[in-house]
From TrEMBL:
Residue runs in coiled coils: none
Domain YtkA-like: residue ranges: 31-123
Name this protein carries in UniProt: FixH family protein
Key words of the record: Signal
Signal in keyword set: yes
């Protein structure tokens, strides 16, 4: 019966169904086999602050080199106020280099963190061998 239904579908309908199936696969949740770890206990507030993180592959607890952090966001939730946010590229003068790999799974992230307090850093990276992006959230203190 399925063969008759597929045979009766126009080619474009079959292509649309195939595209929808592929999109469902592409939107699968990212791997939870990775974690970003903050290396700096405190970060100085600055329009070009540097934050060092290590990307770790959890199953073998090894640092991951060769990843590309292509998106980061810094949020500061304040009770009763709007959330202060700093994105990877912001304004007319973004940081000259958004992220730099130092080696051994350590990455230096640049961002605009204008005030002291508790911030949440969200990172998205392409990791060699992974189909889906790796996402992580790291709390940090800015002084």
């Amino acid at each position: 019966m399925l063969g008759r239904v597929i045979g009766a579908l126009p080619a474009f309908a079959l292509a649309a169904a195939l595209a929808a199936a592929l999109a469902a696969c592409a939107s699968a949740p990212p791997s939870s086999d990775y974690r970003f770890e903050l290396l700096d206990q405190q970060v100085r507030r600055s329009p070009n602050a540097e934050v060092r993180v290590r990307l770790v592959h959890l199953p073998d607890n090894r640092p991951v080199s060769g990843a590309v952090i292509y998106e980061h966001r810094f949020d500061m939730p304040m009770s009763g106020y709007k959330v202060a946010t700093s994105r990877m590229v912001r304004g007319p003068n973004p940081p000259p280099i958004a992220t730099v790999e130092e080696g051994n799974g350590v990455y230096r992230v640049h961002a605009d963190v204008p005030m002291a307090g508790e911030w949440m850093m969200t990172l998205v990276a392409r990791v060699p061998g992974e189909v889906q992006p790796v996402r992580g959230r790291v709390p940090m203190r800015v002084r």
